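Hey everyone, long-time lurker, first post.

I ran two proteins through the pipeline my lab uses and got sequence/structure pairs for each. Pasting them in order. The first:
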Amino acid sequence: MRSYSVVLVFVLLSLSGLFLGQAPSPAALVPEVLSSDDMAAMNGALNSILSSEDSLPPRLMPPAVLPVMSPELALLTYQSRAAQQATGLTSYTSTSVIHAELPESKQQGEYEVTRQYSAPKSLLFTALHFTGDTFVKGNVIARLMQSEVEHVQKDDSSSMAFTAANYKFSYKGLQSVGGRTLHEFQLKPRRRRVGLLKGNLYLDAYTGSLVHLEGVPAKSPSVFLSKIRVSQDFADFGPFTLPVHLHSEAKASIVGRAIVDVYQRDYQVMPAATQTARAAGTE
């Protein structure tokens, strides 16, 4: 999806990685040894239950459980969905809350805006509410939004996409995070270029959806920025996967350490098929 490529954050600050703890492995189950008397008692109880089955309430069928995808299938599914989203998502609107902080000067600000994206190269922000220091508003948040608009207008997302042309993927194993089973892949950029990420990518093991990514830029976007860290969370909205939280930290030569969090909510998405139907007057 063009409008949420990580490169738009690299242009100003980049993001900070969140450490994902690895859940402990489940304990092995040790079978219990039963005597012949125990087996006879269990069989008798089972026969008693079966003979009175008519008096029992209807049994509910357990919900269907999706099988765990192989790492290769999960990665292929994610890449296929990303390619379809690049052409299938015509537009969307959302509410963004952008919080920026400069700890050394104790300045901060929070800007709430609406975001309206229209394929292929249009992104518009509308201000709703701001609180905080005007320096942060003008020199951090406004520049971040402007960099995102410029990135969408350039429409160079293919050079930043998580594909074999841009990255080498190394499988690291299954992780349990927040009750979800995820496939973890290590990302190694094939070239040192602004917009590429060296870190880790996490896919849902049952659906192949992108859930989380984290790391550091393969190349800093500016000589004035260092110690850049990246972290971003995603969620599914129908057939599309969109960002819900972005966190970045970097050290800037002028203002010192800078921290940015972007939260997105209230997505309204329009697939290409819906727009075509509306244009034809069939919806």
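...and the second, right after it:
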Amino acid sequence: MEIEIEKMIYGGDGLGRYLEPGENRAKALFIPFVLENEKVAVEILEDKRSFARGRAEQVLRASASRIEPGCPYFLRCGGCQYQHSSYEHQLEMKRSILRETLRRTAKIEWSKEIATHPSPPWNYRNRTRMKLVASPFALGYYQFRSHRLLPVEQCPISSPLINRAIAAVWGLGRAGKVPQEIAELEFFANAADDQSVIEIYCSSSSGKLLLFGDELHQELPEIAGVTFFSSTSGESLAIAEGEAPVLQYRTNGGNFRVSAGSFFQTNRFLVDEFQALVTANEQGSRALDVFAGTGFFSLPLAQRFERVTAVENAPPSFRDLEHNAPANLRPIRKSALEFVTAMSDEKFDFVVVDPPRAGLGEQLAKGLSKLAPPRLTYVSCDPATLARDLQVLLSGGYQMTDLHLVDLFPQTFHIETVVRLVR
């Protein structure tokens, strides 16, 4: 079957349509690893009542933006979706998807420029999580749209230090020195990419784990420490004595302690630009940072506001937030909804929200509208939940002034957005 690709959609697929025998209406067909305006020969893999999924067997007419992928695992690995496209075209696709999502979901016709902040497209990740099987040894990612492990010995979107750490684990694995209890590893490198910590997720606890950590450090002295977690509960395992290792991450906006389990931005090239975009032009008496993490936006805000309130509920991130906070920054451990509901009478000059992929939700968005700060900046990692939340905020009296696409995740479909709102 030959299909024309109409457009790209959020999630990485291209959209085509085909007419089934005896039907009058064409069915939507979703195909990965294609580009808009291409013509492809397609095999149908899944045929539902309202849509179908397929695989491109051959590209019959290629886009001028199609290039050779930069990773030997592309198409098999589930981590990247856009390596077959030039980087300039990746940004075009993301802008187009963002505009359409705002229009379709929230009826927002954004005719102004989407200010775009590109990243070097390779070696940008400072944090990488991988699956592990000890026998026969394999370290890697899930295969595309499956839960089968694909052995991976290099990751071109991860930092050079993380790739050296991956190589070190492979060396120990080939030597039979990786304990059976290990299920996953997460590597996190600092701003200079000369020091890292590793989180190891285990099915159970044993003395072999501590020995593995020591051997890993011998293979790669840049490893500052290893922390062990339960792969089922996510709780820290008390295997080693003493304090868990932490990483110091320096940005133009401050010096951050980041412990194992804490959230921190993952694009090492855009950290400073991203931080400045959200905070640099803001100043005044009182600021509020909701979903504050370790204080990524709170610390630079504290340099220009008399008082800053930072709300974070996750225990590891909150502990780091408390440690990182200057005297005029007040950390509060509560859920965002609980805090905003309780603080309905408080007044802030500026509020920044950086929610997880699920977004704010209707209650929290309405609560922020009721709080009514004159300036509000929404940092989003999902255009669909952003559009849904903007609908509530705009109906609550806000207007959009700026829309920025910050490309924290080149080679993937993920879209990071910064929206400035005023009332």
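Reply from user beta_strand_b:
Welcome! Quick read of the second one: DSSP finds nine helices and 22 strands in the chain. The longest strand covers residues 51-61.
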